[in-house]
Amino acid sequence: MSIRAWLARRQIRRAFRGKATRDFAPDQLVKLFGGLLAKAEQMAPALPASVKVTPVEGEGFRGEWVEAPGALPARSILHFHGGGYVWGGIGGFRDFAMRLSAAAKAKVFLLQYRVAPEHPCPAAVEDAVAAWKALAMGGAPVMLGGDSAGGGLAVALVQALAAEGIKGPAALGLIAPWVDLGLGGSTFAGNAESDVMLDPRGIGRAAELYRGGLAASDPRCSPLFGRMDTMPPTLLQVDAGEILLDDSRRLAAKITEAGGKAQLDIWKGLFHDWPMVARLVPEGRKAIVDMARHYEAHWDGGETT
């Protein structure tokens, strides 16, 4: 663990899991988490002038392209941001998208999908399908990624596309995906104290808000219980101390059992979604490079134009 990662962990625990939060009700934790994410988004540094950001308003979806210098026209990555399905927007993820764009030599599309409680599941899945149909219509391979709740949404998208007989992504990159809203993973309780960011009570409430009237086992909100035989080669990155560790372990196992390929990289001494603060911690930059290499292996012919 780098000194920067150690310092980041310390600050994150103070902000998200401080002593005062132990007496918070679940709804208070949801409000606290949302406020902290909003503050982080406001404090996010501006991107360099050389990075091109293009807002998009499509049919049934909206978002923006982030394109670093050197991105190849034929390379596209669709990435879904985290936020427990109830918090945040794409503003706090532009730095990550810029770094991924540079490392993968691809333009990255950040989808501003609808969130709960105003728009419970399957609204986000519908937005994801609409975005995919528009972005992948050119025929060139498109990579798909997501972090935290966005990782779960990415898996749900692959399953939704398969149900419609639509070609899915060439590869999938997931950072601590949340794929079981029934909270059935062993580390949900086992890592409740070691997770410096996520409080199980707040996450449980977020799950209720996103599920709406759906059962916790419905694959649209809990894709861990959906079909896995159409999953593309998948890289999963997760920290050993977070409550969502077992979601990644179980997802990787299910993909493998269904005949697919899944690489599970378990990091130590970090925190949930650490690649999103790659500007602060070197481990975040390393994780992004690893993700870019995963995508690199699946571009058709390794095109350079």
From TrEMBL:
Pfam families in UniProt:
Abhydrolase_3
Q: Which residues form the Alpha/beta hydrolase fold-3 domain?
A: 77-274
Any transmembrane segments, and where?
none
Query: Keywords, A to Z?
Result: Hydrolase
Q: Kindly give the SUPFAM superfamilies that the UniProt entry links to this protein.
A: alpha/beta-Hydrolases
- Family to which the UniProt record says this protein belongs: Belongs to the 'GDXG' lipolytic enzyme family.
Q: What is this protein called?
A: Alpha/beta hydrolase fold domain-containing protein
